[in-house]
Each structure stands twice: as structure tokens, then as C-alpha cells.
Amino acid sequence: MVRSLARLQDADLAAMLAVEAPEEGWIMGLGHEDKLRRAAEGLTPPPLRDDCFALPGGVDWTPADQALALLRARLHRVVGQEQVDLSGALGRVLAATVTARRANPPDPNSAVDGYGFAFASLGDGDQILPLVQGRAAAGVPYDGKVPAGRALRVLTGAALPDGVDTVILQEDVSVGTGEIAFRAGIKPGANTRRAGEDVGEGETILAPGRVLTPADLAFCAAVGVARLEVCLPLRVAIISTGDELAEAGHATRPGQIYDANRPMLSALVCEFGYEVVDLGKVPDDRAALRRALDRGAAEADVILTSGGASAGDEDHVSALLNEAGAMAEWRIAIKPGRPLALGLWRETPVFGLPGNPVAALVCALVFARPAMASLSGAGWFEPQGFDVPANFGKRKKPGRREYLRARMRDGRVEVFKSEGSGRISGLSWAEGLVELPEAGGEITPGDSVRYIPFASFLRG
After folding, report:
1. pLDDT at 385 over 90
2. What torsion, rounded to 10 degrees, do the Cα atoms 212, 218, 221, 227 define?
3. Which domains does the chain have, with CATH numbers?
4. pLDDT at 432 over 50
5. What is residue 18's three-state secondary structure?
6. How far is it, in rounded angstroms, from Cα 340 to Cα 120?
7. Of 101, 258, 345, 387, which is the most buried if we count CB atoms within 10 A?
8. β-bridge partners, 93
9. 136-154: per-residue pLDDT in tens?
């Protein structure tokens, strides 16, 4: 009865309580039997303050591609932005378009050490040209114009003065007293760079959503951009749940295990380029978890929990999200993995990951990673996979997409000796995942399979 009432919309519940009847009447929903019956039968989905996690009506097991498409369509940037110097921009997500303040290169210049002249002044056959006094060097331009039929000593990177449009390599020249000689055959414009041939002034060089690399910073500096508008770092709160958890290195009670998920998820979040808000481990106590979620919503942009995401007596994550009216339990057809509890807590997205570390890692990489990229302003993220020959055999049942712990050796991909999701050692052994599609079939050594290195899940 309590679960049924919790599923009712606020307006329906208010109308039920307003019935003019003895106490027993409104307790039993007199006059609203149809609404209560539908709620009891589970036909009415829980109300959401936002529909970003709501599944279509009638959906039970959700194919992985459909789940990813729903997330991609519904999530968006949630962080603010700030302006930073280039020295503080590495790894940040660009928030605004960057345009070149000046061309690169800003002037025509020489690509080699050699001698410059006007190509049109050359005659037929081998050439002998008198030299003008002086030279052009990078940062020290030649002050004057080179007359037609004469040559000037130029060094790599030097701006080409008036009268020079072609440079011959110094190794192709014989130098005499005040003159040079070289063979015929040089082409007009040889060994020079045009002004703006890389990028012109005012051109767009970087688009919003890009995760800035060292090369991007060099590009910005080259065109005169010193400060960039970037997104504030995504803050990710991490919570482990369960009475059975103890901190590594501490004494344990009978039946307890060490918390492996929080160190793993914290490290993943750091590798993704986000800030970690470590909220510790929370016992199977609904009030304590509520306080942790409240703190996560206040201090972070997204919350990752592990454990308590199913529908058991001690699954308080899903219970609290249901209570808040913003819960959607996605039964995604993947292995390893259990239902993902997705919802909003005080308008903050919550990803309730499985408690099993293997399933938690797979779900974090496959679902939370691209979702957090969207929330961070970087846009949807898809890891790069590769088709490689298998060095293993397997008979796969149809129905679920499977992820096997794997690594490459001698040009073939091998998988961990056991598919048991409790074998945490396989996570350390592996260097990536083999992704097997939903269709059933038999894999034999040499067959092509898709391999996704763990490195492909890192920053885009």
C-alpha cells in the first residue's frame, strides 16, 4: 500500500485525502480505487521532476545502444565557465569558439637557409646573381627592397622582403665574391611559406567542446590568443554504500570486505579530467545516505554511487530516488551488469552503479563516461574500438551485449581466464574490453572481434 501511494502523482494523492468520508474511507482511497489499483499494479511510472532518465512506456530490458541513445539525446552541459591563461588551459573543455587574432604565418617567410630573389628576374639556363649587402633572419627582417636580378642571404623563418618571392637552398648554391651561382630548374615560390597559408586572421581555429591539448595551446599562441573561455571542471561526487564495506588497511568485522569501488571510481574520474568529491562509504542506513546525497548535490555536478541500486531490502539508493520521485531503473541488457539506477537528487544527476567492482567498472566506462562528457560540456563521447583477431574461443548466448576483460598480445586479443564478475584480479590483468554484440554465436581463434583499450575511454 505504501509503495502504491508513493507512485501517485501529488495531485491525485491530494484529491484522495480530500474525500468526505470517515477515516477508513480516505485511507482505502474511496472514490479513487482505479488510481490506487493502477499504482499497485505498477502500471504508472514514478513521476520525474525531469524526464532525462525516463524510459518509454512498456520498456523492460533495454538494449545497450538504445540506452546510450537515450542518454545522448537528453543530457547536456551543466557546468559554468571561466576565462583562463594558456598556462592553465591544458585538459580543460573549451566553452567558446576561438578565432585567430592574426594570420599564421603573419608574413611570407623562408622555409630554409639559402638565398632569395624574384623568380621573374631569372633568365634561361644556369644562373649567376650578384648579392646585395645584408641578410634577412628570423626576427631581424631586411630593411629595404631587393632589386630585380639580385639575391639576398636569407635564413629559416626570415620574413621575405620586397623583391623576394623564391628561395634556393644554400646547399644548391656556389658562393663567390659578392655573387652566387646555381643550376636552372628551380620553381617559382620554392622554399617559401605564404602569409596565412596555415590559418588566416579571423578564422575559427577551435570549436566549443574540445578538450584542450598541448598542440591546441601552441596553435592558440601562434595566432595571438592568450586567454581562453573554458568550462568549469565537472565535479563528481563518489559514494560507496553497504554495511559490508571497510576501508583498506583497517580492521574488518566478520562478513566485511574492503571497499574497492571508491578508489577505482575516483581514479577513473581523475583520468577523465574531472574533479573528485569523495563522500566516503555510507552504511545501509537511509538517513545517512540521504545526508550523503544532499551533500553530493550541494558540492558536485553529478553523483556516482556503487551498491544499493537494485530493489532489495537494503538497496537504499534506488529507494531514496524513488521516494524523491526522480528514479528510473534501467535494466540494460549487458553482461556484467545489473540494473542502473538513474535519477535526479535535488536536480543533480545520479548514476547508481552496481556494487560488484567488475560490473561497476564496465557500467562506469560504457554509460557514465559518455554521460559525464556531455555534462562537462565536451559533448557525447564514444571510445575508439578496433577489430582484431581473437586468441580465444567462446560460445555466446543471444540476448545481452557482453564485455570481457581483455588485452592484446602478439597482434591478437586474449581474454581473462574467468568471466566471473567477482574476479577483481581480472581488472588489473586486463588492458581493455572485448565487446560482443547481442546476437548469439560461436567465436573461434582467429575470428574478428571488437577490442576497446582502456585508454580509449580517457579524455576525448
Report:
1. yes
2. 20
3. 2-44 (no CATH), 64-76+233-376 (3.40.980.10), 82-104+200-231 (3.90.105.10), 109-193 (2.170.190.11), 386-457 (2.40.340.10)
4. yes
5. coil
6. 72
7. 345
8. 211
9. 999 999 999 999 999 999 9
